[in-house]
Amino acid sequence: MKYSVVVTFSIEGFHCWPDAKDVFPEVAFLSDRHRHMFGFRCYARVTHTDRDEEFILLNRKIQKGLRIAFTGPETNVLEFDSMSCEAIGEWLLESFPELYKVEVWEDWENGAIIKRSKA
Q1: What is the CB-side half-sphere exposure of residue 75 using CA atoms within 13 A?
Q2: Most CB contacts within 10 A, which of 33, 72, 99, 119?
Q3: In the predicted model, what is the mean pLDDT of residues 23-37?
């Protein structure tokens, strides 16, 4: 059998897609800095039913990593600049080797799924 644990959380953040106005003029507003409640689902493999990874601790570790890397100077809000959901997911996979798959959502409405090549 194969086992995984998953952690899910939301964090307020801002980002933009500077080229949106040129690539898709009908959503040109995405070129400007805008807010989302970014939703995350992060998956880690475990080898048995007694939890190699404690998901409460994994959740805290990932959120702490995001806050350290992306928190704005005088706020508790994440600042992703021009990073897409895909780029944020890639950052998570590079920063947390125990993860094999990540979902990054904008307001739990639209998002991206990023997996390791050999997952």
Answers
A1: 10
A2: 99
A3: 97
